[in-house]
C-alpha cells in the first residue's frame, strides 16, 4: 500500500512539474496565432498580435517596426508558405514572457521558393487583455 501511495505521489509531482501554467498556455496560444497569421499574411491578425512598440529583428540585422513587419507580410513581399516551430520553451514573469524556439519554414519571397532555419527569441507582454509580441530576434543556425 505504501509503495502504491509513493508511486502516485511521484507521478503527481512529476506531472505538476511538467504542466504548463495558465499564463504559459496563453502565451503558447499567442505564439500559434502569430505562426498562423504569418503564414496567412493576415493584416488584421498580425496587427492584433503585435504590440504597438514592436521591435522585430531579422537574422540579417534588419529591424522592423510594427507597421513594417505587418506591411511586409500582408503585402506578400515576405511570404511564408509553411512555418514549423520546434524545441519551444516559455518563461513567464508576471506580465512578460520570453519564448524561444527553432523556426523551419518554406518561403516564396518575390516568387522565389526558399527555406529558412532560424533560432528565434520573442518577448511578449500581457496588455489590453491578451499577450502581445513586443520584441523578436532571429539568429541563423550554424
UniProtKB/TrEMBL annotation:
<feature type="signal peptide">
    <location>
        <begin position="1"/>
        <end position="19"/>
    </location>
</feature>
<protein>
    <submittedName>
        <fullName>Nuclear transport factor 2 family protein</fullName>
    </submittedName>
</protein>
<feature type="domain" description="DUF4440">
    <location>
        <begin position="27"/>
        <end position="133"/>
    </location>
</feature>
<keyword id="KW-0732">Signal</keyword>
<dbReference type="InterPro" id="IPR032710">
    <property type="entry name" value="NTF2-like_dom_sf"/>
</dbReference>
<dbReference type="InterPro" id="IPR027843">
    <property type="entry name" value="DUF4440"/>
</dbReference>
<dbReference type="Pfam" id="PF14534">
    <property type="entry name" value="DUF4440"/>
</dbReference>
Amino acid at each position: 500500500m505504501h509503495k502504491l501511495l509513493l508511486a502516485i505521489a511521484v507521478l503527481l509531482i512529476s506531472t505538476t512539474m511538467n504542466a504548463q501554467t495558465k499564463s504559459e498556455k496563453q502565451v503558447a496560444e499567442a505564439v500559434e496565432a502569430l505562426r498562423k497569421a504569418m503564414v496567412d499574411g493576415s493584416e488584421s491578425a498580425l496587427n492584433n498580435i503585435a504590440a504597438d512598440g514592436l521591435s522585430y529583428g531579422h537574422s540579417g540585422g534588419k529591424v522592423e517596426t510594427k507597421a513594417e513587419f505587418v506591411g511586409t507580410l500582408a503585402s506578400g513581399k515576405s511570404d511564408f508558405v509553411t512555418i514549423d516551430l520546434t524545441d519551444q520553451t516559455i518563461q513567464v514573469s508576471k506580465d512578460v514572457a520570453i519564448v524561444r524556439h527553432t523556426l523551419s519554414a518554406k518561403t516564396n519571397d518575390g516568387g522565389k521558393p526558399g527555406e529558412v532555419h532560424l533560432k528565434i527569441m520573442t518577448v511578449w507582454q500581457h496588455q489590453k487583455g491578451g499577450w502581445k509580441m513586443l520584441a523578436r530576434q532571429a539568429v541563423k543556425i550554424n
